Amino acid sequence: MRILHELGGLTLADALSCIKSISKKRSEEVDARAEAFLKGAQKKHMTAQVAEELFALIRHFAEYGFNKAHATAYACLAYRTAYLKANYPMEFAAADLSCEMGDSERLKEDIRDCVQMGLTVLPPCVNEGAGDFTVCGEKAIRFGMIGVKNVGERTVEAILHAREAGGRFTSLQNFCDRVDSAAINRQAAESLIKAGALDSLPGNRAQKLAALEDALRSGARAQLDRRRGQKSLFGGDAGARAVETPLPQIPEWPPLEMGRHEKEALGLRLSFNPLDRYEAVLSQLATATSATLRSLNDGAPVIVGGEVIAIRPTITKGGHAMAHIEMEDPAGTIRGVVFPDCFEKYGGLLKEDAILFAVGAVDKSTERPGIKVQELIPIAEGPARLTSAVKLSLQRTALNNQVVDEIKALCQRHRGECAVLVEVVAPDQKRVLVKAGRELAVRPTEAFIAEMGRLVGEGHVQLSPRKPQAQSNGNGRARWSRGQF
Question: Cβ of 183: how many Cβ atoms within 10 Å?
């Protein structure tokens, strides 16, 4: 484009049109641009032969140069970001998170990256945070207040201005007294409390939310008195300090409710996520996640697991009940459709906050892949119903007759049909895998996994999922066959 512009006299707009025409092989348009280039080049004292040779090179390069130019640009960008991530991990992560503000799905993904890097993402804070994500001490990043729902730039600026002018906020009333009441409304203040942004002030979140209305009213009255220059009966400004609103004596929200409030305010949970308890089971038994569905073929059988976060019941033309659902797994969200036959069997399990395994087939009928659900299984029943084998990984040095006897006794107390595999790791890291006899086959319930974990060590009990098999239903689509696990 620069050559066409500077040597041939084409405008940059015409130069862009020219290379697009070349790449799309629109010969008539290219010939017209070539004629304009040749005339322009000769006006700049270039011979016709040289101008023709140069345009021939441009014509050839423009067909393939796009890929080379982009590969070079992205390689450069990849190198720079890799350097920053390796040498300034906290600053890089804070900047990356700030760029994704407002996109909760991308934020979840980036926060998982932070955890893998050994970094902690802290809730927003009116006494330490800023609008964007910021580095906060060693190995910690503070959530940006702009990312809180109902909190805009004007509100954040008012908070930062009040903090800069008068130091740290000391209480809920002090916060409402000092932050410009015209810049913060009840919705914004509620969201800040639910997000944990006022956790550095006395009291729990439930107390502060209950006292908020009175604190806002008292603070706004004090600010109005200050603006009017109102004097108190005993001298001084009547509005210099609002009367402290006492916090009611009520307990903090339960973890599940706190997580719901955080999700409402931030689009994600920071302090408590019910999926954390089932992280190991989900990672071992789910054959796909929200992040990997796109890479699977349409109709491929899958098992996904997560929390039900939305349910939209509907009625078919034939009068049968069905539902569209959305589930959240550790990687993001998954949409699903529960058809009438499945809804009739498992509809009772569909409740918001329920954590389930969904068995079905990949659905790529829309831009965002989902699943056609054919079976729903409560998370607690997942290990027993979806496991093909239990593998115990044991160090040879830790094995003795007593440990072996305890393992056998535990397996016999939980008799079932699931095979037990024992992997023995020698001191030189050589491994031997042994399949236990049928008399030691187990039913891998949640209780069994917990007991075995205590016996052989957390992380040494692994579940192998029963692999789903695709089976044609006659219309070219795969369907789930429970008998072919």
Answer: 17
Cα 136 to Cα 142: distance, rounded to the nearest angstrom: 6
Q: Is the sign of the CA dihedral 206, 203, 180, 161 positive or negative?
A: negative
Rounded to the nearest 10 degrees, what angle do helices 205-228 and 186-195 cross at?
140
**Separation CA 150–CA 194 (nearest Å):** 12
Q: Return the H-helix or E-strand segment holding 417.
A: strand 415-425
Sequence-ordered list of residues with C-beta below 8 angstroms from that of 153, at least 6 positions apart, any chain? 131, 146
Count Cβ atoms below 10 Å from residue 149 Cβ, excluding itself.
Answer: 18
Nearest to 454 by CA among 407, 386, 417: 407
Question: d(Cα 267, Cα 145) in Å, to the nearest integer?
Answer: 13
Q: Alpha-carbon dihedral of residues 423, 443, 458, 282, nearest 10 degrees?
A: 100
Contact yes or no for 324/314 (Cβ under 8 A):
yes
Cα four-point dihedral sign 114, 119, 123, 129? negative
Q: Among residues of the chain, what percentage have pLDDT more than 90?
A: 63
Local structure of residue 286 (DSSP, 8 states): -
Instruction: Say how many C-beta atoms besides its own lie within 10 A of residue 28's C-beta.
Output: 7
| Helices 89-99, 104-116: inter-axial angle, 10-degree rounding | 170
The strand ranges marked E within 238-342 are 301-315, 321-329, 332-338
Distances (CA, A) of 430 to 161, 394, 396, 420, 427: 63, 12, 10, 20, 7
* Cα dist from 24 to 20, 278, 314, 408, whole Å: 6, 52, 47, 70
User: 282: Cβ–Cβ under 8 A, 6 or more apart, which residues?
Assistant: 275, 305, 306, 329, 330, 379
Provide block-wise average pLDDT over 10 residues at a time, the chain (485 residues): 91 90 85 91 92 90 77 94 94 94 85 89 94 92 95 95 95 95 95 96 96 93 83 51 79 92 91 86 92 92 93 93 93 91 94 93 91 94 92 85 91 93 88 90 91 89 77 40 29
Length of the chain: 485
pLDDT tens digit string along 16-63?
Answer: 999 888 888 888 888 888 999 999 999 989 999 999 999 998 888 877
Rounded CA-CA distance 103/219 in Å is 33
Residues in Cβ contact with 400 at an 8 Å cutoff, skipping those fewer than 6 apart: none
Tell me which DSSP letter residue 381 carries.
G
472, β-bridge pairs: 478
